[in-house]
Design goal:
Elements: E1 5-7, H1 13-24, H2 28-33, H3 37-58, E2 60-64, E3 69-76, H4 87-95, H5 101-112, E4 119-127, H6 136-151, E5 155-159, H7 162-170, E6 174-175, E7 180-181, E8 187-193
Parallel strand pairs: 4-5
Antiparallel strand pairs: 1-2, 2-3, 3-4, 5-8, 6-8, 7-8
Helix pairs in contact: 1-3, 3-4, 4-5
Length: 197
């Protein structure tokens, strides 16, 4: 599929946040963080906007020119971080200060994030709900994975549903063997992809 992709910038923040909000509104993890649908509709975009801000300032956002899909990437160096990641606290503070789950999800995924090797981290990928199933996510990810293969760099992500896990497995990601278990919630699957020679 010939998906035209460009790098997003600050001027795309609102559109990116709207896209993520729509794409993840019915995601199992979003439903766990914000179990009441009416409340989720009010604060979900604020929550996901933190991810957009992190990717725009510290990483890269690959954005379909037609606005139908986006992938948020961070390059993670090898070794333990020098300082504590304040993103989980910002997620809670920005979106829903009284909801500990808004911070806990970030703390739990951060606790299992690999540190031994530098890698590309697919923080989030979103496809507009009316375009899902067309292969846009694969088209968006493939150029990055091809670059990882050329440069000998692994990639990492957390799948938030069994459906997305299967998609990532087709792209060469493998489940690391230990789920992130949200208390009384759905599992998440940390997945690692070794570069292909």
């Amino acid at each position: 599929m010939g998906l035209e992709i460009r790098q997003a910038g600050e001027s795309d923040r609102e559109a990116l946040t709207r896209l993520l909000n729509e794409a993840f509104m019915d995601d199992p993890v979003s439903g766990w963080v914000f179990p009441h649908e009416a409340h989720r509709r009010r604060v979900h975009g604020l929550f996901l906007g933190v991810f957009v801000d992190v990717a725009l300032s510290e990483g890269r956002v690959d954005y379909a020119v037609d606005g139908s899909a986006a992938a948020l990437w961070l390059h993670i160096p090898a070794g333990e971080p020098h300082e504590e990641d304040d993103t989980p606290a910002r997620m809670r503070e920005t979106a829903d200060p009284d909801n500990e789950r808004a911070e806990l999800v970030g703390r739990l995924t951060g606790a299992v994030h690999p540190t031994a090797e530098a890698h590309e981290y697919l923080l989030m990928i979103a496809v507009s709900p009316d375009r899902q199933g067309e292969g846009l996510g694969t088209a968006l990810i493939t150029p990055v994975l091809e670059r990882c293969d050329r440069d000998g760099v692994p990639a990492y992500l957390e799948a938030s549903s069994a459906r997305s896990r299967r998609l990532y497995e087709r792209l060469g990601f493998e489940f690391t063997g230990t789920t992130v278990d949200l208390p009384d919630g759905p599992p998440m699957w940390p997945m690692w992809r070794k570069p292909r020679s």
